[in-house]
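Sharing in case it's useful to others searching the archive later.

Someone asked me privately for the predicted structure of Porin, so I'm posting the question and my answer publicly. Question first, with the sequence:
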Amino acid sequence: MRKSLLATTILAAMVAAGAAQAADLATKMPVKAAPVAPAFSWTGFYIGAQGGYAWADNSFSNTHDLYNTYANDASYTLDGGLVGGVIGYNYQINNIVLGVEADANWADISGSGSVLRAGELATNCIVSNNPCSSKIDALGTITARLGVAFDRVLLYAKGGAAWANVKHTAGSTDYEYPEFSYSASNSNTRWGWTVGAGVEWAFFNNWSAKVEYNYIDLGSNDVTFNFVPNTYMPAYTSTADTTVNLVKAGINYRF
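And my answer, the predicted structure tokens:
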């Protein structure tokens, strides 16, 4: 009887010790939760490359020469492509993204046209028998950006200053008597304003692609044509108004 009681007591002690050890192991070895991936952020500097297509309107008005005898107007369209680079910085607050951006582009946006005189389309431009022509060979913007981020997708609007290098030509060609021909060109950098909007998608942590539209108004500027030779045509000045619409696609790398 005593031996049976002693065996029962030893068995109970062993069971109690095993239960305590199991409880201790459960306390010391918790199951770890899977780590949570950090939220994507648009904050940081970036550089990029872009290309696109532009269409523009150019008009000449208030034309006058030394004798104030020529007052015809000319209006025509331009179009062409562009390619360039961009640099900027974003700062994200919750889902609001603030930024500044500058871009510069080589361009080949050109066109030509004739005047509308006395209700009929003439074959000359302002005072010549050749159409006027205009070309934008470089342009860029300096803008502020305001966007709303949906994780890796950014919708944004932008606005600020714009510039473009614009060249205008005019002249007259006399094939029978070349000595009566004359021509002139004028090239300058013009400043104006721009507004635009776009969407950007971060397809990798540091890489994103964008599509964007810009409207640029270069304002009204006086353009003076000094003809060579000036024997038959004195210099004259016209007011040029130029607006540009452009669509760009690009890729950016964020630091």
